[in-house]
Write a structure and sequence with these properties.
Elements: H1 2-13, H2 22-30, H3 45-51, H4 54-62, H5 64-67, H6 85-96
Helix pairs in contact: 1-4, 2-6, 4-6
Length: 101
């Protein structure tokens, strides 16, 4: 099931939008728990970007409850976000823009 989800997300990522609007999506939906470079309630984007792929980030946003164990977490408090495919792709690109920082 996870492989099919990752494959589907990969193919939709080919149609992805630029990362600049990902900041707006982040500020609207994610900023309360995540910050770009510092620890908040959830891990910072720098940490996520250095551990996860584009597809994994999207899969976790879609269904955190089914993904947290495979990521090595003991629990998850992240809620399911009702984002469009485009918004989800934009936030994944935005998160990945912090890779290596």
């Amino acid at each position: 099931m996870k492989k099919k989800l990752f494959a589907a997300l990969f193919f939709t990522s080919l149609l992805s939008a630029d990362a600049t609007t990902g900041k707006e999506v982040f500020e609207t939906y994610c900023w309360g728990c995540h910050h770009q470079t510092s620890e908040a309630f959830g891990p910072p984007f720098t940490q996520i970007a250095n551990k996860r792929t584009f597809e994994e980030i999207q899969a976790y946003i879609i269904d955190p409850e089914s993904m947290y164990k495979s990521f090595g977490y003991k629990r998850t408090v992240m809620t399911k976000l009702k984002l469009t495919d485009k918004e989800r792709e934009q936030i994944a690109h935005y998160v990945l823009s912090y890779k290596g920082k």
